[in-house]
Amino acid sequence: MKLLGKKIRLLRHQRGWSQEDVAKQLDISIPAFSKIETGITDVNLSRLEQISALFEMSVVQLLTYNDPEQEIKNASDLEVANKKLHDRDAEVIELQKKVIELYEEIRNSKSFG
Questions:
Q1: Which of 5, 6, 7, 36 is deepest in the core (most CB within 10 A)?
Q2: What are the GO MF terms of this UniProt record (predicted)?
């Protein structure tokens, strides 16, 4: 449930709401809401529906929500990793060519010797 709490905190921050703002809208105490965000308190389905409605999304959307900024960072990291992999592949191909050339040189020198 800690992941859910992080998602709720992120959504709250994106809207510029304080814990007090959300706690009032959920009709719970600030410490009770804080425990939801930190994952100390498990959220029942009723509370989950209430929270998702507050953020104008379905329960499924809330549970599967990912930070768009984090997704962009992950995509960027993936692009960097793909480029490094491509560069390494090119290096391996060049090394393979050199090995083949050396093999050919050795084979040719033995046939002339």
A1: 36
A2: DNA binding
Amino acid at 11: L
Integer Cα distance of 46 and 26 in angstroms: 11
Nearest Cα neighbor of 27 from 3, 6, 53, 1 is 53
Largest pairwise CA distance in the chain = 93
Nearest Cα neighbor of 51 from 41, 63, 40, 68 is 63
0.90 cut: is pTM over it? no
Per CATH, is 2-64 categorized as 3.40.50.150?
A: no
**DSSP of the chain:** -HHHHHHHHHHHHHTT--HHHHHHHHTS-HHHHHHHHHTSSPPPHHHHHHHHHHTTS-HHHHHH---HHHHHHHHHHHHHHHHHHHHHHHHHHHHHHHHHHHHHHHHHHHHH-
Q: What is the pLDDT of residue 73?
A: 67
Task: Give the pLDDT confidence of 71-97 residue by residue, as tens digits.
Answer: 566 667 778 888 899 999 999 999 999
